[in-house]
Specification:
Structural class: alpha/beta
Distance between the termini: 29 Å
Strand content: 15-25%
Order of helices and strands: HHHHHEHEHEHEHEEEHEEH
Radius of gyration: 19 Å
Strand order of the largest sheet: 1-9-8-2-5-3-4
Helix content: 40-55%
Number of strands: 9
Oligomer: single chain
Largest sheet: 7 strands, mixed
CATH class: Alpha Beta
Number of helices: 11
CATH topology: Glycerol-3-phosphate (1)-acyltransferase
């Protein structure tokens, strides 16, 4: 089955993006009805994070999320198979000179890249522009694992690290002026996390971002990939480096990261990865959410 999926992505990647996009949206609408457990997770997350919306508004938002997730699945074939020229044409990189000045000036950089649906193509575009380091989570399916690794390493000279070797090697790579493409906004359990609000709900939030920044002498640069409508492509939005980070407390740093993330999510709420059980780990004494 996974080989058929890879073959399908290869075939579809030849189509213009304006044709791929509606096919992907159609796939996403189908998945909304077929994958009931993930639909339930997404609706639960939206209920917790957007209590001001009506139930009908949250359902509509969830359906749009699945439509865009279908797009991101099919358009992953562009990241895996398309030429560098085509990726450049489809994915615009904003504020690149700022990042290049930091690196050429000897400043280690952490790219804070939250889990928006355009993440993979954004990563491909960043790989074309910069030799980076990132953490790679191995997949249980060997075929998908091989192609995900291929897609993330095919441009430039990328360093992909397994999670268990990530700390020392990532810091060493940052100090060698490889920007660190870092995704710290998922629930990885209570270990090495602190509980701080995310949309007003206590969420286990990784405390590693300020740790990496301190050990590597790095600045944090927001790196958010936005999907544009239809065949208009994607844009990677590089923000200005965070000032006064890390701060005096890990909890304060985690709150700052979540507040930044909330702000970006509100600008494109359907594009965040809502099918992840973000509130799976609960503070002591709290009942399960899902």
């Amino acid at each position: 089955m996974s080989r058929l999926l890879v073959a399908l992505l290869w075939l579809i990647h030849w189509l213009p993006l304006s044709v791929q996009a509606p096919i992907g949206r159609g796939l996403g609408h189908l998945l909304y009805w077929l994958i009931a457990p993930r639909r339930k997770v997404a609706l639960t997350n939206l209920r917790l994070c957007f209590p001001e919306l009506s139930e009908a508004e949250r359902v509509a938002l969830c359906k749009e999320h699945f439509a865009l997730a279908g797009r991101s699945l099919l358009e992953r074939g562009i990241a895996w198979f398309a030429s560098e020229e085509r990726v450049r044409r489809i994915v615009r990189l904003d504020n690149e000179p700022m990042l290049r000045r930091l690196i050429e000036g000897g400043q280690p950089v952490i790219l804070l890249a939250p889990h928006f649906l355009g993440l993979d193509l954004g990563g491909s575009r960043m790989a074309i522009a910069f030799d980076s380091v990132s953490i790679y989570a191995r997949q249980s399916d060997p075929v998908i694992d091989r192609w995900l690794y291929h897609g993330r390493s095919r441009f430039g000279n990328q360093l992909l690290l397994a999670r268990d070797e990530s700390i020392r090697a990532s810091i060493k790579a940052m100090k060698a002026l490889r920007p660190f493409y870092y995704l710290p906004d998922m629930d990885h359990g209570a270990e090495e996390s602190v509980f701080v609000p995310f949309f007003g709900v206590q969420a286990a939030t990784l405390a590693a971002l300020p740790r990496f920044a301190k050990l590597g002498g790095a600045v944090v640069v927001p790196c958010v990939t936005r999907m544009l409508p239809g065949g208009l492509g994607y844009v990677v939005e590089l923000g200005e480096p965070w000032q006064d980070f890390p701060g005096p407390s890990v909890e304060g740093d985690a709150r700052r990261m979540n507040a930044f993330l909330e702000d970006r999510i509100r600008s494109m709420p359907a594009q965040y990865y809502w099918v992840h059980r973000r509130f799976k780990t609960r503070p002591p004494g709290e009942p399960p959410i899902y």
